[in-house]
Amino acid sequence: MARTTGLQRHRWAVLLISLLGARYLLWRVTATLNLSTPLASGLSLLLLACELLLLGSNLLQLWFSLAPEEPPNPGELRETPAVDVLLPCCGEPLPVVKRSLRACLAMDYPNFRVWLLDDSARPQLEEMAAELGCHYLSRRSGEHAKAGNLNHALGQLDGELITVFDADVVPQQAFLRRTVAALLDDQRTALVQTPQSYMNADPVLRNLRLERWLLPDEESFYRWVEPTRQAVGAVVCAGTAFVVRRRALDEVGGFVEGALSEDYVTGIALRAQGWKLLYLQQKLSAGLAAESMEDFVQQRQRWANGTLQSLGLPHGPLRAYGLSPGQRLAYLEGVIHWLNNLPRLVLMLMPLSYGLLGVAPILLDQRAIIELMLPLWGTVLLSIGWLNRNSRSALLTELTSWVLTVPLVVSLICNVLGSSVGFRVTPKHRQRSRGSWSWFLALPLIVLSLFNLANLLGLVQQLMLAGWDGVGPLQLGLVWAGLNLLGTLIALRACWNPPQSDPSPWLSLDQTAELIDSGGHCHPCRISAISESGVELAFSTKVPPLMHSSQLQWTAAIKPLPVVMLQIQGRQAALSWGNLSQQQQHSLIRWLFCSDGVWPDRRPRREVLGLLMLLKRLLFGGPTPQVFHRSLVPRLP
């Protein structure tokens, strides 16, 4: 009954936003265009076209969410077909690959083999695979990037099912049991995709020190977009943390080559062939987010280029046979998502027309703002968090767009001109002894900020001459220009990458523990942060001295581990792990990342408080990530 009531409310909310949106667009077309001069007409029509594109794409996503959902509910695993677990890598650091291999080998499933597919042909990886008990394949050509690497291995495999993890992804022990059970529930199912969590904060969150206030950009995709795509039969294969039938893969000729987004196109090919794709909304793995703003943006540029390349492929969303109109539209929405950066850039530049060109691209008055604009945007702001299942906030999430818009538009233009970038692995696990600016991102934002400042000063001067009475085009331009300047300054602040002395992902935790030694001393404490490299503890009294034999005990799953004191601050202590054996390292990784249900479904904090914190970070900055001020991702005890 509660689910039915919630669905009805959801439908009424979508209907209300759609009606308000239609009313707003009718008003924009009939009453707000400035056609006084050729320049004003061009700018006014361009702004209207951009609003139509952005509002239409957002409404499209809302309409998809109206389709009735039937999320998979797998029961107990009754069969255990052979699974080949593939870990393609291309230059990732050895500790990152080793962590993932250990986690793959620790999965709770009786019939699987792990394959390390090395596109860099490094002897160290071959030795590591042999040491851990994995199969190893390498190639030197690198042709067709990740898809070519995966297809190169298919001839060596004989498992009925295939699972793929990126080289930085750590699966939980229950991954295969849960996904295989979901796959076997229906013989028509070709692929089961799962969401991916992250063991570290992305650069936008970390650079602004907003880890506790914002959610990763991908949360909206995995918690809102994928479930709605499942409802219309158009689940997107995300390229990692999925299991697929070998028979279905063979029917489409293996992993589709010819685009950087081989996962996206392969999923479409399977769907067009008549197979079902499922989305299992259980967080069963975690990977590493990009560690600098340059890497973050270049990763998104690669995703955008790969998605756009799919338009020209036989299995792409435009040309694939066998898709229903709804499924084709759902897959094309993934392309529209990247194309929307063009109208976003126009909206970022349009306020300059008020102060620098003396042209108002939209005509409105105070009555129109109150009766037509505020009802729509107020309804959207108040309901967006509920409609997208608390996966993003209304305003703060747009912060990432401010950073990405200019470089993504450059990528779109290069793609059209036929000079898109090739495949490049996102660097991981890198140390930085000092902070640095991402200049190729910062310079366009500096230019935009200067233009916005000049525009703002020009508008203030015009209003001082014309008077401040009422609300009209100049007042709207002033507010718009002020918000733009604030947005570019915040995005510019996010382009400063702070030092990173410890590249290990640190997790926030609140769990009781005991510091023990061979002399029988036992000091109760609480763990506040933990990683593969060390732990931070909080004591109720003075921090006790450590002995050579001191160990930390906090769970029955791991025997006490040796610790070494690094730093003391008040009642807090930062420790590093002592000399851990291979077995102890393996046990620690399994507990940290592979335990069942360790990654929470977080909700964004109240938007008003988040905005205040964002302004504080802009004006005063935040603490540099270091001991006792780590960049933390939450982990459940």
Describe the structure in your own words:
By secondary structure, the protein is α/β, with parallel strands linked by helices. The protein is built from 20 helices and 19 strands. The protein has helices spanning 2-31, 38-64, 94-105, 123-132, 145-154, 175-184, 203-207, 219-231, 246-251, 262-272, 293-309, 325-339, 341-349, 352-355, 366-387, 399-416, 439-466, 473-494, 582-594, 607-620; strands at 83-89, 112-118, 135-138, 161-164, 170-171, 189-193, 197-198, 242-245, 276-279, 285-287, 436-437, 496-497, 506-516, 522-530, 534-538, 551-553, 561-569, 572-577, 632-634. A hairpin with a 5-residue loop joins strand 13 (506-516) and strand 14 (522-530). The longest helix is centred in the N-terminal third of the chain and has 30 residues, at 2-31. It is globular, with a radius of gyration of 26 Å. The mean pLDDT is 90.
Show the helix and strand layout:
Elements: H1 2-31, H2 38-64, E1 83-89, H3 94-105, E2 112-118, H4 123-132, E3 135-138, H5 145-154, E4 161-164, E5 170-171, H6 175-184, E6 189-193, E7 197-198, H7 203-207, H8 219-231, E8 242-245, H9 246-251, H10 262-272, E9 276-279, E10 285-287, H11 293-309, H12 325-339, H13 341-349, H14 352-355, H15 366-387, H16 399-416, E11 436-437, H17 439-466, H18 473-494, E12 496-497, E13 506-516, E14 522-530, E15 534-538, E16 551-553, E17 561-569, E18 572-577, H19 582-594, H20 607-620, E19 632-634
Parallel strand pairs: 1-2, 1-4, 2-3, 6-9, 7-10, 13-19
Antiparallel strand pairs: 4-8, 5-10, 6-8, 11-12, 13-14, 13-16, 14-15, 15-18, 16-17, 17-18
Helix pairs in contact: 1-2, 1-15, 2-12, 2-13, 3-4, 11-16, 13-16, 16-18, 17-18
